[in-house]
Design a protein that fits this description.
The protein is α+β, with helices and mostly antiparallel strands. The protein has two domains: 109 residues, Umud Fragment, subunit A; 65 residues, no CATH class. 24% of the residues lie in helices and 35% in strands. The chain has three helices and twelve strands, in the order ββββββββααββββα. Strands 1, 2, 3, 4, 5, 6, 7 and 8 form an eight-stranded antiparallel β-sheet that branches. The relative contact order is 0.13.
Amino acid sequence: MNNHAKGDALFVAYVGPSMNPTLREPEMVEILPYGSRPIQVGDVIFFTSPEADRPVVHRIVSVTATGIRTRGDNNPQEDNFVLQPGDIEGQVVAAWRGQKRREIVGGWRGRLASRWLRWRHIIDRKVSPLLHSVYHAMARQGIFIRLLPARFRPRVVAFQTSSQDRLQLLMGRHVIGRYDGRLKQWQIQRPFRLFVNEKVLLKTQNRH
């Protein structure tokens, strides 16, 4: 993550899938120090991971006498570590894409948003196995790709981070997928795989 300060706010380039769909690459997140404000369950916070010694943006899921527990909105498990108030650099209050600012809610509203995302993940895991084979068979046939005008078809975009090139799949201005270098595979939001040429993706990832 690359960061710079502006007044009291800190701006950081968000990287990774752990907070999808709340945050997505390549958004900039706006972070405000807590000061005298209380740290609350539901807040999205910026801190340095005690395990990996790297910056992390995750949501607070519990605050107890022993410490603060966090989890990414897209992660099934809580983080293994426990934070202390002094470990937290600030609260993520907004995400920026170009000049467009989007509020990131915290507190009780953040808790509701997190709970909805958790239920959506659970429902998705239940339904996905039933539709998985049909969905991927339709994607391989490429029926929907041929129906979509060329100018509307997804395109691969590469952008540079501090450590490596990252690949994203865009449809119009919307990020619909990204290449996971660790898993060596594309992560594409449903139902957009129906409009993707898998051969083009394979050629692109092999060049990086």
